Amino acid sequence: MRLRKRRATTDRFADAPLDGALLDVDEIKTGFKTERGLVRAVDGVSFSLERGKTVGIVGHSGCGKSVLSRSIMGLLPSNVVRGGSVKFEGVEIGQATSNVMRSYWGTQMSMVFQDPMTSLNPVMKVGKQITESLRYHLDVSKEYADETALALLKSVGIPEAERRLHEYPHQLSGGMRQRVMIAIALACGPKMLFADEPTTALDVTVQAQILDLLQQLQRERFMAMVLVTHDLGVVAGRTDDIAVMYAGRIVEKAPTRSLFAHTRHPYTEALLKSIPKLAQPSHTRLEAITGRPPDLTQPPKGCKFAPRCPYAQARCLEEEPPLIDHDIPGHAFRCWFPVGTDAGRAALEKNVAAGETVTGLPVKAEAGALTTGLIA
Amino acid sequence: MLESAEFQADSVHAGAEVAVEAPPAFKKKGIGVVSWIAIGWLGLITSLAILAPYLPIKDPQFADFARPSAGFFTPGHLLGTDDAGSDVLSRAIWGARSSLAIAIGAVLVGVVVGGFLGLYAGFRGKKTDTVLSSLFNILLAFPQLVLALTLVSVLAPAAASGGSESAGHDFYSKRLFTVIIAVGIVSIPILARITRANTLAWSQREFVMAARAQGAKDRRVMFRDVLPNVLPAILSIALLGVAIVIVLEGALAIFGLSIPLPYASWGNMINSQISQLDAAPQVWLVPSILIVFTVLSLNYLGDVVRSHFDVRESAI
Q1: From residue A185, how far is each of A98, A132, A153, B75, B223 by CA, in Å?
Q2: pLDDT per residue over B149-179, tens digit each?
Q3: Which fold has domain A11-239?
Q4: pLDDT 10s digits, A68-77
Q5: Which residues of chain A make contact with B206, given a CB cutoff of 8 A?
Q6: Is residue B16 part of a domain?
Q7: Which of B212, B216, B313 sits opposite A117 (nearest CB)?
Q8: What is the number of structural domains in chain B?
Q9: Are strands A332-333 and A249-255 parallel, antiparallel or unpaired?
Q10: Each residue's pLDDT tens digit, B289-310
Q11: Domain ranges of chain A
Q12: A74, B35, B183, B239: which could form a disulfide with A101 (CB 3.0–4.6 Å)?
């Protein structure tokens, strides 16, 4: 490996402390200026991530999960309003400019994008796309970069890697392209990987392969990973923690096992219920969440989910619950009447008896019965 | 290995009885016969223009006073002579030299300057884009011919139309250069707009964001990721641009602002005969036909380039 005396973009990170959280996000806020006002895409999100850990960020489209990951990486256009603090290895990068962030991108943090069809340059050979950032960041010789690219392609499970190096993206299938994207993202050995819906554009059989691959590489490299998805099934069993987002906020944050075993937030419960189950007879109507997400230019005063929540009470419209741990340590959620607690049961019972919630959302008895087991 | 050998033997055997259709060979998409004719024509014209000084043709400025305005197939003058007695074939070939030099030179100026400005405007966006785009629009607001005429008259060294002969070859080169720059300036906003529009579209693509997320600098993203994708569009418009400039040169000649006589260009050959079209048709007919075929070829190839490079993902 030949090193030239140019710049070494990684020098600045050589003596970074190894203890403490790799990433510390505190009350991050990201808004887009539009004619209708400020769209609060991310509205006060906090979490931290240690080396070698994985966090899943789950929510429906438009809840701010992609904006959150791009906001942390500083990849958003300059017309956004950013607030809060992002600390990477203890260094504040929340308001860093692109010029500063460039020393992080690729070598410290990297991203796998949603659509492998559009995230590769169509007129550049696959091998070239991998070696480019290697040669630029790590200042290695062409031969070394080529060897590394080959090893990378093999490590992401691409057969006939030698041949693929000299092919263009259009000659590869979608799954192959996503593997190449992963190889590119990992080329410079980042400490943190953002996977922004990495399997949404792929078919189901390939999805599992790509997710397994990401998980395997994340373990091998002891990387921190943020897995952004709208599919709770994707993160189940693959992440250490899960944060469920709604309307730009985290509504429930817990270790993966606890989140599924002791679901507390009605939105998480609704998400789980909307996954079709194998045990259900065919033609079972899929549970949907009634209503639509709130207007992010004027978010409601109380709980953001209240208008669509079968548990909603008068208090939910007035006060927004804080994101704090309740009965289970490490399991935080924002709800006054959490699922699976006495308060929640009472609230649902009251709404079922009235036939509708305080916001006028009709509540059917069966809907509650499925989850709470009250009315058998 | 064994299996494939067996399979081959099998298929050979089957071929003996039933005609087994050969698997369709994976052929690259051709560009068609017409394209090759167009390329051939352009190649012919270009090589004639380049080789003009070495070809066994008459001096284009030599006046054969014995045979002025001779028709086609006059002995010694295959395509006749003009009213001064100069050989039309020779003038047409030397004219191609001037016309093509102007067309290609001007478009090159447009591609390099306009292409860069358009790329920069489209990639940077915001104020840079606003300022540059307004500049292009202002330039586009002038009628092309008027702008070209004005620029040539402003830039051209004073030319006494009568005494141009004494000015010599130096004057010819200066005028050629002036016309190239003037028409080049006219073509800048057109190419810049096309490049900008394409750059805008390509800059929104996810791979540009992906390159940035890998830590690539703006300049690198612009030239390595965006430019190669925009090039086919630029090339296609550039080919059409050459065709347009060939015609524009003819228009400039009518106002006496292209290559001056006695030097030949296709435009001034037509112009020299414009007041008496029926007197010696060969003089204007030959360059006109040359212009028509050249422009047709360029337009056709421009379209071929556009559609050929337009496949990408959609064709998979």
Answers
A1: 18, 12, 12, 74, 21
A2: 888 888 776 554 444 444 566 777 778 888 8
A3: Rossmann fold (3.40.50)
A4: 988 888 888 8
A5: 113-115, 118-119
A6: no
A7: B313
A8: 1
A9: antiparallel
A10: 888 999 999 888 888 887 777 6
A11: 11-239, 264-281+294-372
A12: A74
